[in-house]
Amino acid sequence: MPTRDFSVQLLSWFDRHGRTDLPWQHNPTPYRVWVSEIMLQQTQVASVIDYYTRFMQRFPDVATLASASLDDVLHLWTGLGYYARARNLHRAAQTICEQHQGEFPADLAAVEALPGIGKSTAGAILALAFNQRQPILDGNVKRVLARYFAVDGWPGQAAVEKELWHWAEQLTPSARVAHYTQAIMDLGATLCTPKNPACDICPVRAKCQALAQSEVARYPNPKPRKALPVRHCAMLMITNTAGEVLLEQRPPVGIWGGLWSFPECEPQTDWRGWLAGQLNLQVEHAHAWSRVRHTFSHFHLEIQPIHVIARVSDRAVMEGGTRVWYNSAHPDARGFAAPVKRLLDELRAQQQGVQ
């Protein structure tokens, strides 16, 4: 099947309708492109723009990012989700400074070796920042190719993904690679959308096999449905008489790794006894709030927030490297998961008498 027409038509469309004014498209250095590609993993452009702008103001280059504390990095990531991306970004910046003299590598294998960078992200960085001929296969591109070539099966399956990589390689031109890469991502994001695609104005509709079959909605095949399990925890929002709230830093790996959160226990735990035994805190008043559900990719987390007003004895476990009494009225730079940040904001509003 001839493939040259695809890139010619797509680039012609991009020259008239493509997105060319996104923040990372101005001065597209490897560092700026890299940060944008990590932020855009599983996150839409509209959600990323403000985060990206603030991140670049605080960390304008790889050396600044590498020398920053993880807390500073996670603080600017708060609310963006998938926090392993931020931890990997920080580690990769340190690796670039230690192993590549502070210069982002221009070799595919070296880029893929950096923490948090897979084959498609590496290809996108090298194509957009170095104009190297590297194919990409992010979610938008998978959808475009699955429809254009009527590729059956869920793209998460190895055989299906292998076929899509074949077509991605075949279609990628030798010239204007950076524009082509942006164009095919734009096509998936703006026209070849998951629902209600704008096939009537698609620049490559003439040879789209899914459209020819009148079965665009069929491709790509959805991921097989599986009921997500539900996990439960109680979050103890412990405040002292000064109105400060006790926070703990989570372990560096795992869910919300490195972020700050409330002490947690199983819902059925005798948490009053746990507070007395582990922290030497005496409960003066406690009130359970409405449950909060947070959904991860593999499970739902059912959170039971409990506001505890505690009396701090002289023998109480106080601040340490992973525990702090936090004044939410004068916040400092710490990283929080979205549900924890919302609970902190609600707690601060209650303390200030805001309904």
Q: Which residues form runs of ≥5 with pLDDT under 50?
A: none
Order of helices and strands: HHHHHHHHHHHHEEEEHEEEEH
> Sheet bearing the most strands, described?
5 strands, mixed
Under the CATH scheme, which architecture of the largest domain would be assigned?
Answer: Orthogonal Bundle
Labels describing this entry:
355 residues; alpha+beta; Endonuclease III, domain 1; Nucleoside Triphosphate Pyrophosphohydrolase; 2 domains; 3-stranded antiparallel β-sheet; 14 helices; 43% helix; 14% strand; elongated
Overview of this structure, please?
By secondary structure, the chain is of the alpha+beta class. It contains 14 helices and eight strands. Strands 1, 4, 5, 6 and 7 form a five-stranded mixed β-sheet that branches. Strands 3-2-8 form a three-stranded antiparallel β-sheet, with no helix packed on it. The N and C termini lie far apart (64 Å).
Give a short synopsis of this structure:
The protein has 355 residues and is of the alpha+beta class. It folds into two domains: 4-218, Orthogonal Bundle (Endonuclease III, domain 1); 230-351, Nucleoside Triphosphate Pyrophosphohydrolase (Alpha-Beta Complex). Helix content is 43%, strand content 14%.
